[in-house]
TrEMBL record:
<dbReference type="InterPro" id="IPR014303">
    <property type="entry name" value="RNA_pol_sigma-70_ECF"/>
</dbReference>
<dbReference type="InterPro" id="IPR036388">
    <property type="entry name" value="WH-like_DNA-bd_sf"/>
</dbReference>
<comment type="subunit">
    <text>Interacts transiently with the RNA polymerase catalytic core formed by RpoA, RpoB, RpoC and RpoZ (2 alpha, 1 beta, 1 beta' and 1 omega subunit) to form the RNA polymerase holoenzyme that can initiate transcription.</text>
</comment>
<dbReference type="InterPro" id="IPR014284">
    <property type="entry name" value="RNA_pol_sigma-70_dom"/>
</dbReference>
<dbReference type="InterPro" id="IPR007627">
    <property type="entry name" value="RNA_pol_sigma70_r2"/>
</dbReference>
<dbReference type="Pfam" id="PF08281">
    <property type="entry name" value="Sigma70_r4_2"/>
</dbReference>
<dbReference type="GO" id="GO:0016987">
    <property type="term" value="F:sigma factor activity"/>
</dbReference>
<dbReference type="GO" id="GO:0006352">
    <property type="term" value="P:DNA-templated transcription initiation"/>
</dbReference>
<feature type="domain" description="RNA polymerase sigma factor 70 region 4 type 2">
    <location>
        <begin position="115"/>
        <end position="165"/>
    </location>
</feature>
<dbReference type="InterPro" id="IPR052704">
    <property type="entry name" value="ECF_Sigma-70_Domain"/>
</dbReference>
<protein>
    <submittedName>
        <fullName>RNA polymerase subunit sigma</fullName>
    </submittedName>
</protein>
<dbReference type="InterPro" id="IPR013325">
    <property type="entry name" value="RNA_pol_sigma_r2"/>
</dbReference>
<dbReference type="Pfam" id="PF04542">
    <property type="entry name" value="Sigma70_r2"/>
</dbReference>
<feature type="domain" description="RNA polymerase sigma-70 region 2">
    <location>
        <begin position="13"/>
        <end position="76"/>
    </location>
</feature>
<dbReference type="InterPro" id="IPR013249">
    <property type="entry name" value="RNA_pol_sigma70_r4_t2"/>
</dbReference>
<dbReference type="GO" id="GO:0003677">
    <property type="term" value="F:DNA binding"/>
</dbReference>
<dbReference type="InterPro" id="IPR032710">
    <property type="entry name" value="NTF2-like_dom_sf"/>
</dbReference>
Length: 310
């Protein structure tokens, strides 16, 4: 049976969409923007007739990378005046649409964690693209050179510079976040988060302080849209007081569930079926080292009931 051009395009779309989304989301830190970029990339590719493209995957990566860079450039001024800490949009795994095939090299779960995505924000746009294509997607330098429009030798240097930049000791970097060198144990993280929730809800501050590292840090992203801490909160006791204060003021109809957020255990909360906040964590030595609380409603729209499985 002969495959028509439309059928071939659909097969390419189904085959490469998870990869394209994986690249775009890591570049942008936005689920909605990544989805838009991927959709636009495939529409553009179809207009140019993919039947005559020798390497559709590399071609699509090039389109997605360039569109991501254009997106970042246009958003740079908004980022400069962003109110409070900026956190990536949480990627909540509710359907197979964004799941990553286990046999592909870009399935490294740690590269989707909030901590990792924040580290990527320290890189320039070209550094981020080269780093992701090489470190996460395992592209050869010749392939990367064709995608980003630079020489293979230049891409090798860019990658080395990018890797060194996000691997520096904590005191030498602007970010407080440590590079997660390996995936966090899912069972351990789930157990710790469950203990944390139990201690917080029961008001057991003593137990809470045994779960949270004394030098822990909490980032709260409200984007100036809703009330949130405009500066990171430092120290286990201050974090406990901050979260206890939030808990005491929660509206009726509030409920939160443990879910897979950025390939790790997180908390997704709703009020009357509308997204309220998402919290993710980073562990260190079996305790919570970092909290990432997203309350900016613009970054939660894709989690609205009825839209999450689109």
């Amino acid at each position: 049976m002969e495959i028509t051009g439309a059928e071939a395009s659909e097969q390419i779309y189904l085959s490469y969409r998870p990869l394209m989304f994986s690249l775009a989301y890591r570049m942008l830190g936005s689920v909605m923007d990544a989805e838009d970029v991927v959709q636009e990339a495939f529409l553009y590719a179809n207009e140019t007739n993919l039947d005559h493209v020798h390497n559709p995957k590399a071609y699509l990566c090039k389109i997605v990378t360039n569109r991501c860079i254009d997106n970042l450039r246009s958003a740079s001024k908004n980022r400069e005046v962003y109110i409070g800490p900026w956190l990536p949009e949480p990627l909540v795994t509710l359907s197979t649409d964004h799941q990553i095939a286990p046999d592909l090299a870009y399935s490294h779960k740690e590269s989707l964690s909030t901590a990792y995505l924040l580290l990527l924000q320290q890189l320039s746009w070209v550094e981020r693209a080269v780093f992701l294509l090489r470190e996460v997607l395992q592209y050869e330098y010749d392939e990367i050179a064709d995608i980003v429009g630079k020489s293979s030798a230049n891409c090798r240097q860019i990658f080395r510079r990018a890797k060194n930049a996000i691997s520096l000791p904590q005191e030498e970097r602007a970010s407080e976040t440590k590079l997660p060198l390996k995936s966090q144990d899912v069972k351990q993280m789930t157990a710790v988060v469950e203990q944390f929730v139990q201690a917080l809800v029961s008001g057991n501050i003593a137990q809470l302080l045994t779960i949270v590292k004394s030098d822990a840090i909490l980032y709260s992203d409200g984007g100036g849209k809703v009330k949130a801490a405009t500066n990171p909160i430092l120290g286990a006791e201050r974090i406990a007081m901050f979260l206890s204060g939030i808990l005491a003021k929660l509206p009726e109809g509030y409920h939160a569930n443990l879910m897979t957020v950025n390939e790790q255990t997180g908390l997704v909360a709703y009020v009357n079926n509308q997204p309220h906040n998402v919290m993710t964590f980073q562990l260190e030595d079996g305790q919570i080292k970092s909290f990432y609380l997203v309350v900016n409603p613009d970054k939660l729209k894709h989690l609205e009931i009825g839209q999450t499985e689109a």
